[in-house]
Design a protein that fits this description.
The complex is a heterodimer of chains A (about 325) and B (about 450). By secondary structure, chain A is mostly helical. In chain A, about 70% of the residues lie in helices and about 0% in strands. Chain B is globular, with a radius of gyration of 25 Å. Classes of the chains: A mainly alpha (about 325), B alpha/beta (about 450).
């Protein structure tokens, strides 16, 4: 009886995990598989690699501490690192804009109310499902000088095709062209973004007298800019870690024309018994990617529009 | 934090996290392998307490032994040898494996303390691995083991000597390759040429070039039959010719690259001219579409230098024409031949938990019975001279199979260095080789650059 009195007089009691705390807990629980995976399988090896980067570590025998020796070697003795950085950067500068624009263009096309659009979307996305070594081998054939599809198509219009992967001046452009094979991945994200643009915005713009081009620039582009931003960040990261194509198709040649940074890292780690040096190379690449990504993120305030964002000042 | 601003923050966070994760993946790959334990045994004292000859191994304690080899062909023969070993040593279980991506897997397995007890080694890697102190010094075991001494007394002595690193055997040779000239005998006869096997003692570079020109068939600008391959890499290509002409890649003490010396330059010029002047050696475009061996087997290449291991494939798969082999053409300047061999050896892991048993197994794998099994398996030439005759038996094909043995007398191992790995040394070699054979660099320019870059590596390593 007295309990009933007490209960009636007090505010309803809430558990420790309720409201905001419960929300936080739920969030952490949902994220926990990734967090645990990161701590166990990534952070540990990452910390180990920090240590290894200061050692002479041939993998098959214990590491020996050499301080900044690996980093000094990078700056003074490694004749291939500059070429590797140059190749990787040039590739990224060419492949990222190409893939971003093509992915966006395809998404716009496949966002039109055309017959069989689902089939077309599947067709354009399909290549992105196949990746890695299989694609590298496929493109090796496409770029074959004598029997390849690329030169056969060019021959139809009377052009004698280049030697592609055999020619130092064409090898890297060949890989840039090949990078478009995976454009379906970006396309599908762009498509999702385009379909999320509210139609009333277009209607309002149309009532205001905006033509198709203006609607595209003033409505479509701002509304999907977060998606473009996401694709750009992913593109930067992916391009700077290019490896498989060069490893399978060219081995870095001819004349180091396709000697990507990751290939140099792999060679040092697994071919030349220099895991310590490879760890140092990996950290340099890590910071290179991080700096570029941070730059992209900082620049986003100037060109990425968030629908519900509160602008200060 | 308002819901309206959180989206940007969230996206920024995602971007940063993805960047961090991506970099982390690369970094994790370089840090995922813990260092192997050095143990208390040094490379010289890691021998089992009591060396045991194979026949006396009947009462061996239980052990699970793993043996790794880098290609699958020998596994069946090794399993036969292991079966007879396990019949005598019932408590020992032997597993022979050929894991994919052998060298990478081997490195990481050894680093993780999970490497095989015995593994196969090639001579281009042997010195750099032996120098790391991860291989058991086998000399004390050999000197205490009459069975192994008998094995070695019947084996190719040069190969045993090669496996001496700084005076000690950290590995023992097991089988070896040689390089010979393969040719399409039917086509050669059709062209009215004497098969090379019949004139191999007189067959020199000039004759090789003449033959290649005669054997080449053209249809307008395209070549339908290439006469002779001259642009192979170091192992089956130019080093054999360079050595025949008195040159080499490294000095005998491996301290300097001498590929730019006149004897080598002359050999390279000859090979390059076959490609660029005569156009009788397959073009890069042709090789891009199809490998040399495939081109030979499909009747579009008449002669090719190749390793002795190719005989097995040709014997099993080639049905369209008769092929034969001969020794590689000799140099007209020196009158001598040259050759390279990759001596495949057995080494023991210092971390092996069953060194006594592993040693007994190594001894067993080198007995005549075991080496006979290897020879009959037609994989590579067994290191034992008294088993080799089985491997070189002409009934296994081709008819001049003995040529693969004849070359042994002038064959020397592929170059190796104790600090600079084969892969690192080969990078500039491969690059400049392509430049020369594609005509983007002259032989002089290319070899000078190649030697310079290799010497830079050797100097840095010293």
């Amino acid at each position: 009886m007295s309990q009933a009195v007490v209960t009636r007089g007090a505010r309803p009691r809430r558990g420790y995990f309720s409201g905001r705390r419960l929300e936080n807990l739920t969030g952490w629980l949902w994220a926990s598989p990734w967090i645990l995976g990161f701590l166990i399988f990534t952070l540990g090896p990452m910390l180990a690699s920090v240590y290894f980067s200061f050692t002479d570590f041939p993998v098959i025998s214990p590491p020996k501490w050499i301080g900044l020796g690996n980093y000094r070697t990078m700056l003074t003795k490694d004749g291939s690192i500059l070429q590797a950085l140059k190749v990787t950067t040039v590739y990224a500068l060419a492949a990222i804009p190409l893939n971003l624009s093509l992915g966006f263009f395809l998404a716009i096309l496949l966002n039109q109310p055309i017959k069989g659009v689902t089939v077309w979307r599947t067709v354009y996305y399909l290549p992105a499902v196949i990746s890695g070594v299989a694609v590298a081998l496929l493109w090796q054939w496409i770029f074959n000088t004598d029997f390849g599809l690329a030169n056969w198509l060019l021959s139809i219009i009377g052009i004698k095709g280049p030697r592609w992967l055999l020619d130092p001046s064409w090898a890297l452009p060949s890989l840039v062209i090949m990078s478009m094979w995976g454009v379906g991945g970006g396309m599908i994200i762009n498509l999702a973004g385009l379909q999320g643009v509210p139609t009333q915005l277009y209607e309002a713009a149309e009532i205001d007298g905006a033509g198709a081009w203006r609607r595209f620039w003033m409505v479509t582009i701002p509304m999907v800019s977060p998606v473009i931003f996401f694709n750009l960040v992913m593109g930067v990261i992916g391009a700077l870690q290019t490896f498989t194509q060069a490893f399978i198709m060219t081995g870095g040649g001819p004349r180091e024309a396709t000697y990507f940074y990751m290939l140099h890292l792999y060679n040092n780690a697994f071919q030349w018994l220099k895991m310590g040096y490879a760890a140092a190379l990996a950290w340099v690449l890590f910071f290179y990617i991080l700096i570029l990504t941070l730059f992209v993120i900082r620049s986003s305030s100037a060109w990425v529009y968030y629908e519900g964002e509160l602008r200060r000042g | 934090m308002s819901a309206t601003t959180s989206r940007r923050v969230f996206l920024k966070g995602i971007g940063t996290a993805v960047a961090v994760s991506a970099g982390a993946a690369a970094l994790a790959a370089c840090g995922a392998t813990p260092a192997p334990s050095q143990g208390t045994e040094s490379q010289a004292t890691a021998a089992p307490a009591e060396a045991t000859a194979a026949p006396a191994a009947a009462g061996m304690a239980a052990a699970d032994l793993n043996v790794w080899v880098w290609w699958p062909d020998p596994v069946e023969s090794l399993n036969q040898m292991a079966t007879s070993f396990m019949e005598t040593n019932t408590a020992v279980k032997v597993t022979n494996e050929a894991p994919a991506d052998y060298w990478t897997k081997l490195q990481t397995a050894l680093a993780g303390g999970a490497g095989p007890d015995i593994y196969f080694m090639n001579n281009v890697n042997y010195w750099s691995w032996a120098s790391k102190g991860i291989l058991v010094d086998l000399d004390p075991l050999v000197s205490a083991d009459a069975g192994m001494q008998d094995n070695l007394a019947n084996s190719w002595q040069d190969a045993i000597d090669f496996y001496k690193f700084e005076g000690k055997n950290y590995g023992l040779p097991y089988m070896y390759t040689t390089v010979i000239l393969y040719y399409n005998e039917d086509y050669m006869k059709e062209k009215g040429l004497t098969p090379v096997a019949e004139i191999e003692d007189d067959f020199d570079w000039n004759m090789f070039r003449e033959y290649a020109n005669t054997l080449t068939e053209r249809d307008g600008d395209s070549v339908t039959m290439w006469g002779g391959q001259s642009t192979d890499g170091i192992e089956t290509g130019w080093l054999n010719f360079s050595r025949g002409n008195g040159g080499d890649f490294l000095t005998p003490d491996s301290s300097k690259c001498i590929v730019d010396e006149p004897a080598s330059v002359e050999a390279w010029q000859f090979l390059t001219d076959m490609r660029l002047v005569d156009n009788v050696s397959p073009s890069p475009e042709a090789l891009q579409a199809e490998g040399t061996r495939s081109m030979f087997m499909t009747g579009r290449l008449a002669m090719m230098p190749g390793g002795s291991w190719v005989m097995k494939t040709l014997n099993e798969q080639l049905t369209d024409f008769t092929y034969n082999i001969a020794v590689l053409p000799k140099s007209p300047n020196t009158g001598g031949n040259g050759g390279t061999t990759n001596v495949v050896g057995l080494v023991m892991n210092t971390d092996s938990k069953g060194k006594d048993q592993a040693w007994a197994l190594m001894t067993h794998y080198l007995t005549k019975d075991s080496q006979d099994i290897l020879a009959k398996g037609n994989i590579l030439a067994p290191i034992r001279n008294d088993s080799a005759e089985l491997y070189y038996d002409p009934t296994l094909g081709p008819t001049n199979r003995a040529a693969a043995f004849k070359v042994q007398q002038w064959t020397t191992p592929l170059p190796a260095h104790k600090t600079v790995t084969w892969g690192e040394m080969y990078k500039p070699v491969g690059e400049w080789q392509t430049e020369i054979f594609e005509g983007r660099a002259t032989v002089d320019e290319g070899l000078t650059a190649m030697a310079s870059e290799v010497n830079d590596l050797l100097t840095a390593a010293s």
